[in-house]
Amino acid sequence: DEAAQTAKGEIDKAKTPAEAQTAEEAGTAAIAEDVVDAAKQDAKNKIAKDVEAAKEAIDNNPNLSEDEKKGFKDAVDTEAAKAVADIEKATTPADAQTAEEAGTAAIAEDVLDAAKQDAKNKIAKDVEAANAAIESNPNLSEDEKKGFKDAVDAEAAKAVADIEKATTPEAAQAAEEAGTAAIAEDVLDAAKQDAKNKIAKDLATVEAAIDANSNLSQDEKDAAKLAAQAKAAEAVANIEKAATPEAVQTLEDAAVKDLANIEIKAAYDDAVKAIEAADNLSTAAKTQALEDLKKARQAAEDAIKTATTADEVAKGALDGLKSIAKVEAKAAADDAKAAIAQNSNLTDAEKKVYTDAIDEALKDTETKIDAATDADTVDAETIVGQKAFAKEEVKAATADAVKG
């Protein structure tokens, strides 16, 4: 407006048409200069807004280090300074607009680069965490671990490639999230395989322990093993449906406890049959032994229930098997001593030799049972003890027959 007023004033002062034309042209040029200046200011304002928005976007990237953020913000400042310099050189509004758009695009590229770096950093963190999670699975073989880690690497490489192709921060974020999800799926698959391996291992252990129960019939053993197999199959089916490693672990832990309880029940049933077959025990002695068995089984089941790790479950089960075995061994020793007491041709002193030998054998058996590290050893030591008791019983009966 000021340029226009000035031009009008100069035109009014003109004495000749030439002077009027000169005043008009000067006014037109001044007005055009004002338009260019306005366009330049508009462009610089836009660049300033872009810089502010860009820096905020860069700072909002959660996976960039402070140094990385500074680097990208410095790049934004550089592009902004270049854009402003180009805007200042503009001689037309169109030139100013072109310089503005070039600056906006360059700043947007810096924001995109920051988003890509953030996404790649997140993928790198995911890979590190995934590999650590896979390594921590105690029931995977080294080959299995390598397979799952290779799968993680493949998903990470695909994610990074997709991130590099992204043309917007939103596309970079989408590629990041897809990569994160794919890597998480590999971690879940590893957890599932670990759990299935653990259940298969425990099932084999339980089946072997059931077979070692010498007082159970084949039908009873088969029934116990079928119960164990059913629990294992149910657990595996549920594990396959699990959506998180935590859910997988919960299912694995429950299955491990179920299998341990089946192992304890089979050992208990075996011991009950042994005690009930002890013909020389009084009813009261059998009742007491059976009561002791119930307590041993209950203690084992309680320990298994409260266990918080697989190792604690295994310890609770093994301790229970040992307690049951010691009750069974004591009942067998008492049965043998009761038989010796019935040898009427032996003196009390002679009987004591054999019963003392049984007591010593029982003590040795209990020590070996306590030292056992697996169910098979517990069963084996129990049988060795029972044979030792029977041997003394036979020796006493032979001596009694000779005297008779």
Automatic annotation (TrEMBL):
UniProt feature coiled coil, ranges: none
Disordered, as annotated region: 1-25
Annotated DUF1542 domain residues: 39-109, 115-185, 191-265
Signal peptide: none
Protein name (Swiss-Prot/TrEMBL): DUF1542 domain-containing protein
Organism: Streptococcus suis
Classification lineage: Bacteria, Bacillati, Bacillota, Bacilli, Lactobacillales
